[in-house]
Design a protein that fits this description.
The complex is a heterodimer.
Chain A (H helix, E strand, L loop, with lengths): L12 H4 L6 H21 L2 H27 L7 H18 L5 H20 L7 H21 L12 E2 L4 E2 L2 E2 L7 H24 L1 H11 L1 H7 L3 H28 L1 E2 L1 H4 L2 H14 L4 H25 L4 H22 L3 H15 L5
Antiparallel strand pairs in A: 1-4, 2-3
Helix pairs in contact in A: 2-7, 3-7, 3-10, 3-12, 3-13, 4-5, 4-6, 4-10, 5-10, 7-8, 7-10, 8-9, 8-10, 12-13, 13-14, 13-15
Chain B lengths: L7 E2 L5 E2 L2 E12 L2 E12 L3 E5 L6 H8 L7 E6 L2 E2 L5 H6 L2 E3 L12 H7 L9 H6 L3 H19 L15 H14 L4 E5 L7 H18 L2 E5 L3 H7 L2 E6 L2 E6 L1 H5 L2 H8 L5
Parallel strand pairs in B: 5-10, 5-11, 8-9, 9-10
Antiparallel strand pairs in B: 1-2, 3-4, 3-6, 6-7, 11-12
Classes of the chains: A mainly alpha, B alpha/beta.
């Protein structure tokens, strides 16, 4: 009944190659966009923005970035936390050095700086693969956190060693700092997420994406067909770093406001984003959204159910949360190794013929 | 057959041109193992050239030398009369040499269409920023190359599985998709490593027909390794026979069939 392609004829290759080839899917996508841009900003309050929406939007950007590297290009990375820190500190330095420039520019530049750093740490991928590469990127994680802790220039010699986001505006609306309205921070992150998702989709459906996937699936054959492995891997690192840098900058400037690098961008952040990618579905942009939503929503839902509905003590609920999230991850990997995105695909195929499957 | 440099016409009416690829005194060693020992032969434009021999004779190594995956310790490779310097496989691909693999080397996570589209990579000129924008140059280029790919998909009769993930396909179709991917590059020289291994008679017949059609319609020069002697002798214009890394025979199928060294080493005699 839903997701039917019957009667929806494609007469050009451009039509056949569009992002949502099924008409129902396309309308649903536009409906979500209209809701996110036209309805949510008028309803959002500080609690919703800070507990759910901002972390979801920001982690979704990071998950898209990591998915490009791990899911599309097959290069395992455990350095996400460190690369997010690069984005955050780059953004901080730009914000404090050029206060009059728009935050849009700062965040984009922070992404650019992270892309360069990410490429530098991606160089070992030309010689090593799999677990060994994971260990090499782990080194990036520890080195970068150490660097931002030890070199005072990065935190402008502040006494606490923290970085604090000063108040900055976009088009006259305050975006960062404690006085920023919830709708503005939400819209700011939403615009970045939308653009990042579109760019990621465009890259992965075309030549660049195919050379990434060729490297992922069989690197030797890819090279014999004409993929330059150096170029493919390093562009994946660059694009991935760009997105992760943007998410790091937003995470610091818009969401947290003040950051201590070891706490905000430690190894647990790398794993969190990696879990989002794996649970959401490797090699799927929808998967990045689903994984981010799952891991951001789940703790909140568990807390609401445990504390507010069942009336349990907060600390017990907090511990249960960890146990349940852990168990769900294991369960997921066993039952559906291709993640939520695969569940969604199967559901779509079922819905196509529902309720008369014969 | 003597090595004439000018072109000639085969009995079935195809024109065979001059030499496109020349291997001169190639020696390839892996540590102490000599995989190829002092082999010379050439491939002429428009011909179907077979390399045969027992297992471990060095046939696949020879193909890997041609496709740039191995660099021989001695000898030289001449392509269009020019000596080819040692280069990476993707640079060789850019010169118009495409190949298929003995053990299918498709990209399992991608659809058939995407797999064949990867064959067009060398024709894609837009940069990453144009790709990110998509509308405009990138989309136009995608559509142009899609049209070429669709022609090849039609030619190999795999339209019905266009959007299927490769991992779901049976063996015979995978072989065909791999041929499609190699053809998508519109190669001047096509290398086929055991294109009929593990196939039943009908599939072999289909594949033979495709190979002949490719050669006939696109004028592609083909070098292939195959163990089915019936197929080899029917398809080939000339055959090279290898054994223990050496060349023991080179000539038309008829010459090979009557070559005593080849009969002793590989073909054998029937005992009926």
């Amino acid at each position: 009944m839903f997701y039917r392609e019957a009667g929806d004829f494609k007469t050009t290759y451009a039509e056949d190659g569009q992002t949502f080839p099924i008409r129902f899917d396309r309308y649903r996508y536009f409906a979500v966009l209209i809701f996110a841009f036209g309805v949510v900003p008028f309803m959002v309050n500080d609690y919703w923005a800070n507990a759910l929406l901002l972390p979801f939007l920001i982690y979704a950007i990071a998950a898209i970035g990591l998915n490009i590297l791990v899911g599309y290009c097959g290069q395992v990375s455990l350095g996400t936390g460190g690369f997010m820190a690069v984005g955050a500190y780059a953004c901080y330095k730009f914000m404090t050095s050029f206060p009059e420039v728009s935050m849009f520019v700062h965040v984009l530049l922070a992404g650019g700086v992270t892309a360069v750093v990410c490429v530098a740490f991606g160089l070992p991928s030309l010689r090593i693969k799999g677990f060994y590469l994971a260990v090499a990127t782990l080194a990036a994680q520890f080195f970068l956190v150490w660097l931002f802790n030890r070199v005072p220039w990065f935190y402008n010699y502040s006494a606490s060693g923290q970085i604090n986001a000063p108040e900055r505006e976009v088009l006259g609306v305050i975006i960062t700092g404690p006085n920023a309205p919830a709708w503005a921070t939400y819209m700011f992150c939403l615009v970045f997420l939308t653009v990042c998702a579109l760019v990621a989709r465009n890259l992965t459906r075309g030549t660049v994406g195919r050379s990434w996937m060729a490297i992922r699936d069989m690197d030797i054959a890819a090279e014999i067909i004409g993929v330059n492995p150096l170029k493919a891997k390093l562009t994946a690192f660059a694009v991935s770093g760009f997105f992760i840098g943007i998410s790091g900058a937003l995470f610091f400037a818009v969401y947290l406001g003040a950051v201590e690098v070891g706490e905000a961008f430690g190894i647990s952040k790398s794993f969190l984003v990696l879990f989002m990618v794996i649970i959401g579905g490797l090699g799927s942009i929808f998967g990045a959204f689903a994984g981010a939503a799952f891991l951001v929503l789940l703790p909140v839902v568990l807390k609401v159910v445990g504390v507010d509905v069942l009336g349990w003590p907060t600390d017990i609920v907090a511990h249960f949360q960890l146990v349940i999230v852990g168990a769900l991850i294991v369960l997921f990997l066993i039952l559906e190794p291709h993640g939520l995105a695969q569940l969604w695909r199967v559901a779509k195929e079922k819905l196509r013929l529902w309720p008369f499957p014969h | 057959m003597t090595d004439v440099t000018d072109s000639y016409v085969t009995p079935d009416g195809r024109t065979i041109g001059g030499v496109v690829m020349e291997m001169n005194n190639i020696t390839l060693r892996f540590g102490g193992v000599v995989a190829i020992k002092d082999i010379s032969f050439n491939i002429r434009e428009g011909e179907i050239r077979s390399i045969i021999g027992p297992n471990g004779a060095g046939k696949s190594s020879m193909l890997n030398v041609i496709s740039g995956f191995y660099v021989p310790q001695e000898g030289e490779v001449l392509f269009h009369g020019k000596k080819r310097p040692p280069m990476r496989p993707y640079e060789v691909a850019r010169q118009g040499i495409a190949r298929t693999f003995q053990n299918i080397a498709l990209f399992e996570g991608m659809s058939v269409l995407d797999n064949v589209m990867t064959g067009r990579l060398n024709y894609m000129k837009t940069n990453i920023f144009q790709q990110a924008l998509w509308k405009g140059r990138a989309e136009a280029e995608e559509v142009e190359n899609r049209a070429v790919v669709e022609r090849i998909i039609d030619f190999l009769e795999i339209q019905h599985i266009r959007k299927t993930p490769v991992a779901r396909l049976p063996y015979g179709l995978k072989k065909r998709v791999e041929l499609a991917r190699a053809l998508a590059a519109e190669p001047k020289l096509l290398l086929l490593d055991e294109p009929m291994a593990g196939m039943n008679v009908e599939e072999k017949e289909d594949m033979s027909r495709f190979i002949l059609d490719v050669n006939d319609e696109f004028g592609t020069t083909i070098a292939l390794i195959e163990h089915d002697m019936g197929v080899v002798m029917d398809l080939s214009d000339r055959v090279v026979v290898m054994d223990y890394g050496r060349k023991i025979g080179d000539g038309t199928p008829a010459e090979i069939l009557s070559n005593q060294a080849v009969i002793d080493a590989y073909l054998g005699v029937s005992h009926d």
